[in-house]
Amino acid sequence: MKKAISILMTLSVLTLALSSCDWAKDKTKKAVNKTGEIVGKTGSEFGEGIYKGVKKTFDNDVKISDQLKEKGLELGEVLINSSNSTTDNILTAYFIFNDNFDQEITIKIFDENGKEYGRLTEKLKGEKGNAKHFDFTFDKHVNIGKKGSITIE
Q1: Are strands 131-137 and 90-97 parallel, antiparallel or unpaired?
Q2: What confidence score (pLDDT) does residue 53 get?
Q3: Contact call for residues 142 and 109 (beta carbons, < 8 A)
Q4: What is the largest CA-CA distance in the chain?
Q5: How far is CA 71 from CA 82, 122, 152, in A?
Q6: Can you name the residues that pair with 153 across neighbouring β-strands?
Q7: CB of 64 closer than 8 Å to CB of 101
Q8: pLDDT tens digit string along 57-106?
Q9: What pLDDT does 59 receive?
Q10: Would strands 90-97 and 73-81 be described as parallel, antiparallel, or unpaired?
Q11: Which of 96, 102, 115, 130 could form a disulfide with 74 if both were Cys (CB 3.0 to 4.6 A apart)?
């Protein structure tokens, strides 16, 4: 009789332990999922805040010459990108063509003290009514990612 009660108690304890393990696993899984969701949202908001801060910090004053404007060239968004081997050496500019345009342009990059440290001349071509992005890749010594100014002439 003692043996039967002992076996019954052992089975009861094992059953209780196994069922509580499943309960604990389920609760742990739900807690981990909820924590992951919170971290994901926070990380996303944090990343967005960093992006906005970096974008604001690296704003350059970008100007297009009056001569180019008179020829129907309008400048939209300007972005700074990196190549595979160099950081911040690609200037991506969105040009709007208000007239047919087919000529060379020169892009000059100046630091915050007005000293030129990058120059590139390339042919730009577009038809009236069109607009598109153009990538201008400077050599590996040019790092556009700091405050300063950019002129397009």
Answers
A1: antiparallel
A2: 40
A3: yes
A4: 106
A5: 30, 17, 13
A6: none
A7: no
A8: 346 788 999 999 999 999 999 888 887 777 788 889 999 999 999 999 99
A9: 67
A10: antiparallel
A11: 96
Query: What single letter denotes the amino acid at residue 143?
Result: N
Cβ contacts of residue 140 below 8 Å, gap of 6+? 85, 86, 89
Question: Residue 62 carries which DSSP code?
Answer: E
Pairwise pLDDT comparison (122 vs 25), residue with the higher score: 122
Closest C-alpha to 122, from 144, 79, 93, 84: 93
Q: What is each CA distance from 35 to 31, 43, 47, 102, in whole angstroms? A: 6, 12, 18, 56
**Nearest to residue 124, comparing CAs of 116, 114, 134, 115?**
134
- pTM greater than 0.85 (yes/no): no
Report the amino acid identity of residue 144: I
